[in-house]
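Retro notes
What went well: the complex prediction finally ran end to end.
Inputs used:
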Amino acid sequence: MTVYETDVPGVGKKFEVEIGSDERLVVLLHHDGKREVFHKPDPDADAERLVTLSGQLAREVGAILQGAYFQPVETDEVEVPLGEAVIEWLDVGQESDLAGQTLGEANLRQRTGVSVIAIQRGSDTVPNPGPGETITAGDILVTLGTREELAEFEALVESDDS
Amino acid sequence: MAELLLEVGIALTAVALAGALANRVGLSVIPAYIVVGILVGPNPPSSVLGVSLNLVSDSEFIQVLAELGIVFLLFFLGLEFSVDQLLRDRGRISAAGGVDFAVNFGLGVAIGLLFGWTLLETLFLAGVVYISSSAVITKSLIEEGWIANDESGPILGTLVFEDILIAVYLAILSAVAGGGDLESAAISVGTAFLFLGGLTAIAWYGSGWLDRFFRTSSDELFILRIVGVTTLVAGAALALGVSEAVAAFFLGTGISQTAHVERIEHIVAPARDIFAAVFFFSIGLTTDVTLIAGVAVLLAVAVVATTVGKFLSGTFSGRFYGLDRRRSLRVGLGLVPRGEFSLVIATLAAGIGTGRLASVLPAFTVGYVLVMSVLGSILIQQADTITDVLGPSSG
């Protein structure tokens, strides 16, 4: 695919995109943000104006073409499948006193109500870790709990002996 | 103060209405601004059905706004002047532009001499009929969709060539016309080149500094800096006897090397539009239509000759760019409109010249631009009919 770029004085920029052997798409970018798209079926044909878009509309259409368009979701209306619970990723720091303990020793679920549902260790992931699994510094704990429980849990992870 | 404010209010409202009307009927706004200026101005027609139409006088305030219109038209011309494009495509652009200049400037010189004008007057006349209107042409190109076709190449290329040529032309002519004898003319040409050379040097070597100077997060501070510096440079140029329009053009090309071009197009262009509209309006204010009637023969000759001239030189340029017959004819028709730069040249002439330059040339130019801007737009709109009439389209 070749793209030809030309300045159009007083207007903006013109891009010609080869989309087939002879077919071209011509995009005119105005300084005021307006975009015009023309289609030229073959070199001898006159360009046909397909669409004129405002800057905002053009960006949305562009995102759709790119496959990167997501409809924004109203957070109030989202149904949370976990009820009150959320999933959070927590780093275990070098100073954390959890480091070196097994999940069983740390007794996290009893103390805070939070479940550790997986541990990410470097490029490895330990899914559904058992009570014998040792937490090491640098681990990322994937945790499930309510916001209050997680706040308490976070304090515990960050605390050290001193 | 009340009277002046009311006049300016009437002027701006009249311009707004004229623009809306021109837009409705699909014509360029430039002739509409001029006509409305003639209507409400001090010259005839001064009343209609017993109601006075002498609403707006040619006050100093309007003159200053109009002057800013010239300055910012040329500033943007410089800003949008693409040095890269000119260098990249210099072979074809200079061929198309060279033919365009030789034919149309040459025709202007021939007409001037034929009507017994002096050399200086003839050179001004040639400039007026030579330069096409970027504003009318680009607008038509977009409306007709030609901008996406191959014919836009030679049309825009020719306009780029005309831009650089008109800057040089204005610089030399304003310097020469200002001085009387050879010695003072040489001094004023020297001053012009020193001033513009200095401006170019600052723009070229100080682009980093310029870039930092205009960098601010506030749009308000930004437009103030651009408008302030541009007006100051133009004013300083004029005080030194250098064309303010050319100084603004050079400043524009200098700033086009910085990262601020996009932002100027967004934020300063509206200011340019207001000033330019008042400039066209004030041309109307100062125009005496009875004077236009006096140059009717010259006008008729110039309209016919220079329409044909642009058509032929443009068609040649199209052929030179390797376009087929139909598209080459479109290039010819597309370059016919004349507009803002012809008026800038005439205003310069009126400002520094005497005799014919001060009265006949401005009147001629107004009549010429009124005809050519409208005729040019119509020729572009009817291009397909015209090329069909001229013969069957072939490959």
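What we learned: The mean pLDDT of chain A is 83.
What to try next: split runs per interface for comparison.
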